[in-house]
Amino acid sequence: MDPADPTAAVAAAAERCSNWGRWGEDDVLGTLNFIDARKRREAATLVREGVSFSLSQRFDADGPQKGWRRRTNPVHTMLDTGTDAEAGVQGFPHGIGGADGVISMPLQCSTQWDGLGHIFDHGRAWNGRRAGDVVTSMGDRLTGIETAASAIATRGVLLDVGRALGENGELPDGFAITPEHLDQTIAAQGPTSSVGRGDVLLVRTGQLARVRREGWGDYAGGDAPGLSFLTADWLHAAEIAGVATDTWGFEVRPNEFHESFQPLHQVAIPHIGLYVGEMWDFEALAAHCRDAKTWEFWLTAAPLPITGAVGSPVNPIAVL
Fold this sequence. Notes:
This protein is an alpha/beta fold. The protein has 2 domains: 6-68 and 107-319, Glucose Oxidase, domain 1 (3-Layer(bba) Sandwich), CATH 3.50.30; 75-104, no CATH class. Helices cover 25% and strands 18% of the residues. The chain has 10 helices and 15 strands. The strands form 4 sheets. The chain has a 9-stranded mixed sheet with strand order 1-15-13-7-9-11-12-4-14, with helices on both faces. The protein is globular, with a radius of gyration of 20 Å.
């Protein structure tokens, strides 16, 4: 991997890891095809304690966004309130009152899925389609996030790389997680952390824990630990359905190439067809997994079926 030549590295990895045509020319699900009925039945048997964890950060005005590419924190406004009801100004009969609200936010401002229409490579989207044929001003006409509304319910696996390799359970910013690091973490955690077909892989770096102590800083777009570009082949070979991290961008930042921007995204989404989750919260789940000595669980992580969206907020639930 020549740090001075991201173009060649992306092209080579795209050719090696391409899933174009694997599920037919009309496919809209990418690696979510790896989740089948048998996989879900097997994953459901992982529920033993009946304990559940939300893996979502909050959606509110105190989030990390700074306006990069017009990404802002959510703005929640009340339309009807209890004070309106007390004042009798809502116009309802026989004393009934209510409260309503509205939220305005980018679809990828907190815990999220990146859909298959989110990233292109040289003007090509997932499955080799022209980017302009897929996403227009009307949204993603083919692989919109609504196509995944019922798909993401499967086995989840947490690799606590921050705990396995970091100091005090956290990796430093700029730490590139290689395939060897993933394998080392699996070996350290034991057989329940094996990763395979149809799984959703969760990678904890510990960055979220750190920024919660120290303040957001540049969490939304700045330096971060994350997956190395070298993991593209590992992710492809594992045949996972999706991958998520506790960082803003999933891959290591600064990126490993000179003058590059998110090269692993450029391979993972349009070529592998991989769903990518960002800014997930693994802290409570990781603590429980360490105590229970198990790293696998039932995971449901349905995106909001927003027609034509290229990404979606999500409240993932892990159940052990």
